[in-house]
Design a protein that fits this description.
By secondary structure, this protein is an alpha/beta fold. Helices cover 40% and strands 13% of the residues. Strands 2-8-7-6-5-3-4 form a 7-stranded mixed sheet, sandwiched between helices. Strands 1-11-12-10-9 form a 5-stranded mixed sheet. It binds pyridoxal-5'-phosphate (PLP). Pyridoxal-5'-phosphate (PLP) binds at residues 76, 137-139, 142, 177, 179, 230, 232-234, 259, 261-262, 288, 300.
């Protein structure tokens, strides 16, 4: 076993998987049909030789996207913190679940500490008045928020189901994440019962429209139970005005969940935590340290106020796991707070990285990342060809178009815009083929916008002025003859 793992590390090094100089390609893009030929992907009756396995590992590394590259800005996550990765490997090496203290003693303590510190970070009461759990991703963390809110509003739903209840409805902004829609489907509410609240020109939820939508729902005889506000919307990176939204929720007696999957990390920064002002007024929060902060995938926290609330809403009391007559304090068995049975240990990697860096170190990495975003913004603001989607920068992502030289100085008709939207995809294609840069693009239907680039900067690898300059220069180079 150890020999195999040592060999794996060697291959990762030989293939420069962790290269942070930016000199290696961020991707070696090959079309699926070609890739199939390149790798011997089929599984067979006979075992493979040691050599074949080594080749398979090597090619996996070679043809995978190098998220550790300073030129990867394609998603909301990127490379990981070194200690985080070590923690992740440690977890896997000890192959365990997280539901009972019995089977995960150390991991149980680590998860609790991570939750305690995270509660403190967002200004929630500490345990047992605050609580939390690590979830398989932010979509699930958001669904936990919906489940908790619904249980609070109509506790009988747990045993009796939805039949006989008025139509339950929830609210999120136009810019909110689609996981709320999925949650509405999975929870039997239906996607039509997610009311989309309008955003202002910076992509932030408008509290006046929230109020109006709640009123509209009540007039229709529906039962509002959940408001989702977002800190760091997925595309524009906007932060909803939490104090105003919290005031509406208080007046209307509604559960306020904050989807801070992306923006929650800014809470670590003294300079930027202002963007999440009011988060402590909410009932629950979702935060993905696996995004900006660089905890290894997956690491998502659901945090909630209310003693025992998480347990009461989710427990099913399975006696084969959660025997009440164990020889230790069974309140350390956290599994019945979860919707899952077996639960991957996601707290340990975050714990190890937090332990190694200290809150101070994590804070610094956030400030370094935000310095880079601001620098990128300042540089493209006035640079010929670059065009910002939002009138000012108040979020965490930067959305922009790049107008190639051949399209400048023309009248900006509908056709011109359509062409620009196609250009965005074309420039992206060139990035991928060239393998030198990855920045994602997106349309935004509620604003009637076609494709634009979404520049994302994360803490790992730490971005620099040079990596920001590189991205700007590269886009200009790739689009020069378009
Ligand atoms: C990424 C994201 C999610 C979903 O998180 P996953 O871990 O990808 O499921 C939810 N909300 C926002 C705002 C996000 O950016």
């Amino acid at each position: 076993m150890a020999k195999l793992l040592k060999r794996l590390v060697e291959i990762l090094e030989e293939e420069k998987a962790f290269d942070r100089t930016g000199e290696e390609p961020v991707v070696r893009f090959v079309q699926p049909e070609e890739l199939q030929k390149e790798l011997s992907i089929e599984l067979s009756e006979e075992p493979s030789s040691e050599n074949e396995i080594e080749t398979a590992i090597r090619k996996t590394v070679r043809y995978s996207v190098k998220t550790f590259s300073p030129h990867f800005h394609n998603q909301l996550f990127a490379g990981t913190d070194d200690y985080g990765l070590a923690g992740s490997w440690l977890t896997d090496a000890l192959s365990s679940s997280q539901y009972t203290y019995e089977v995960g003693p150390v991991f149980t303590l680590m998860e609790r500490e991570v939750i305690e510190k995270s509660l403190e970070l967002i200004g929630y009461p500490s345990m047992p008045d605050g609580d939390g759990i690590l979830c398989p991703g932010g979509s699930l963390s958001n669904m936990y928020g919906m489940v908790m809110a619904r249980y609070k509003a109509v506790p009988e739903v747990k045993t009796k189901g939805l039949a006989g209840l008025p139509q339950l409805v929830c609210f999120t902004s136009e810019g909110g994440h689609y996981s709320i829609l999925k949650g509405a489907h999975w929870l039997g509410l239906g996607t039509e019962n997610v009311y989309k609240v309008k955003c202002d020109e910076l992509g932030r939820m408008r509290p006046d429209d929230l109020k109006a939508e709640i009123e509209r729902a009540r007039k229709q005889g529906h039962l509002p139970f959940f408001v989702n506000a977002t800190c760091g919307t997925t595309v524009l990176g906007a932060f909803d005005p939490l104090p105003e939204i919290a005031a509406v929720c208080r007046e209307e007696n509604l559960w306020l969940h904050v989807d801070a999957c992306l923006g929650g990390t800014l809470q670590l920064s003294r300079k930027y935590r202002d963007r999440l002002k009011g988060i402590e007024l909410s009932n629950s929060v979702a935060w993905n340290p696996h995004k900006m902060l660089g905890a290894p995938f997956q690491c998502s926290l659901f945090l909630v106020k209310g003693k025992n609330a998480l347990h009461e809403a989710n427990c099913a009391g399975a006696r084969y796991l959660f025997q009440q007559d164990k020889h230790y304090d069974v309140s350390w068995d956290t599994g019945d707070k979860s919707v899952q049975c077996g639960r991957k240990v996601d707290g340990a990697k975050f714990w190890l990285m937090w332990k190694a860096r200290g809150t101070k170190g994590l804070r610094k990495s956030v400030d370094v990342a935000m310095f880079a975003v601001e620098y990128f913004y300042e540089r493209i603001k006035t640079r010929p060809g670059f065009r910002l989607v939002l009138p000012q920068f108040e979020g965490c992502n930067i959305c922009f178009w790049y107008v190639p030289p051949s399209m400048r100085g023309q009248s900006e008709t509908q056709e011109w815009w359509e062409k620009l939207y196609k250009m965005t995809a074309k420039i992206k294609e060139r990035m991928m083929i060239d393998g030198t840069l990855m920045i994602g693009y997106s349309p935004l239907s509620y604003k009637n916008l076609g494709n634009f680039f979404r520049m994302v900067v994360t803490c790992q690898p730490p971005p620099t002025k040079a990596s920001m300059d590189y991205a700007i220069d590269k886009i200009e180079e790739l689009a020069a003859d378009l």
